[in-house]
Amino acid sequence: MLVNGKPWRTIWAEDGGQAFGVIDQTRLPHLFETVTLRTLDEAAHAISAMIVRGAPLIGATAAWGMVLGMKEDPSDAGLENAYRVLLATRPTAVNLRWALDEVRAVLAPLPADARFEAAKAKAEAICDEDVALNEAIGENGLAIIRDLLPKAPKNRPFQILTHCNAGWLATVDWGTALAPIYKAFDAGIDLHVWVDETRPRNQGANLTAWELNSHGVPHTVLADNAGGHYMQHGMVDMVIVGSDRTTARGDVCNKIGTYLKALAAHDNGVPFYVGLPSPTIDWTLDDGVKEIPIEERSQDEVRRIWGKLDSGDFGWVTLTPQGSAAGNPGFDVTPARLVTGLITERGTCPATREGLAALFPEHARS
């Protein structure tokens, strides 16, 4: 995508693959800065500290982390150590494990002196594949938007609500939930996006709004609790969100607050779609509520907020009384019954085991 007229991906090789660069998403929207990662530990920190975030980008970063691990120690012990260190960074997004499994499967049969170059090639392939998958999601989601257009009021733009950031910053490029929006906007469809702020890390207000602003897409940032009100008053024609892990029967794990938006959409007859590439599907799980591990993040993410002060400086502001405890689950699970459809690179299907199996028969259980 474009930043100040220049095309960017969110992750790229540097120094012939001896290092890789990423956009530091903790500095957005006020500062656009990049970070060069040169060691396995730096790659792991970038994931755990959310310098990079979003399930597909976490997977791509983990793949490049394996490259750095092989640079440091390409032995069997080094391979297993790199896998273990990166897998421990964040528990919820299944793309992390998927990418690590993909790289390890390539490297394990090889002699140690061949592993670094093979890891680079596989990491580059994972990144390129992610771009292609997400662009296909964009095309398939565009078809849904076109189908819904005639049902929307004609006296205003087509209104889409999204939660968290599932744009190109969450992937290598294009995004998942935002890819259909970019495709529709570029096709000339008159649309407007309601952007949930997405407390406590504000990925909607900080990242989605920044993305849409950079691309020229009309949007408005909403307080997280406002979405249901807008749906009640007929001001939302469609909800599109991303996913960090989707089960084989169609339960969707996404950023905390997604479940409440799905309930509001269901109550008001608003179509609720999820954009996800197939590596986000965890074919080993059925019941998302019971089986998906939910990351519990630092209380300080709720208690404090980082931003631009009136002075023009940047800093942290404390929001809560001293001594108040804070709960901070990073994700929640939306049951499949609340999901209108899953938008994948192979097409759109119902959020059911049968729907997913029809698109991905190689994963269907006998």
From TrEMBL:
It holds the Pfam family IF-2B. This is Methylthioribose-1-phosphate isomerase. Signal peptide: none annotated. GO terms for molecular function: S-methyl-5-thioribose-1-phosphate isomerase activity. The record marks 164 as: Transition state stabilizer. The keyword Amino-acid biosynthesis applies. InterPro entries: IF-2B-related, IF-M1Pi, IF_2B-like_C, Initiation_fac_2B_a/b/d, M1Pi_N, NagB/RpiA_transferase-like. Its EC number is 5.3.1.23. PANTHER family: METHYLTHIORIBOSE-1-PHOSPHATE ISOMERASE (PTHR43475). It comes from Phaeovibrio sulfidiphilus. Pathway: Amino-acid biosynthesis; L-methionine biosynthesis via salvage pathway; L-methionine from S-methyl-5-thio-alpha-D-ribose 1-phosphate: step 1/6. It catalyses: 5-deoxy-alpha-D-ribose 1-phosphate = 5-deoxy-D-ribulose 1-phosphate; 5-(methylsulfanyl)-alpha-D-ribose 1-phosphate = 5-(methylsulfanyl)-D-ribulose 1-phosphate. Belongs to the EIF-2B alpha/beta/delta subunits family. MtnA subfamily. Keywords: Amino-acid biosynthesis, Isomerase, Methionine biosynthesis. The active site is at 244 (proton donor). The gene is mtnA. HAMAP family: Salvage_MtnA. One of its GO terms (biological process) is L-methionine salvage from methylthioadenosine. Substrate binds at residues 53-55, 90, 203, 254-255. Catalyzes the interconversion of methylthioribose-1-phosphate (MTR-1-P) into methylthioribulose-1-phosphate (MTRu-1-P). Also catalyzes the interconversion of 5-deoxyribose 1-phosphate and 5-deoxyribulose 1-phosphate. Part of a bifunctional DHAP-shunt salvage pathway for SAM by-products.
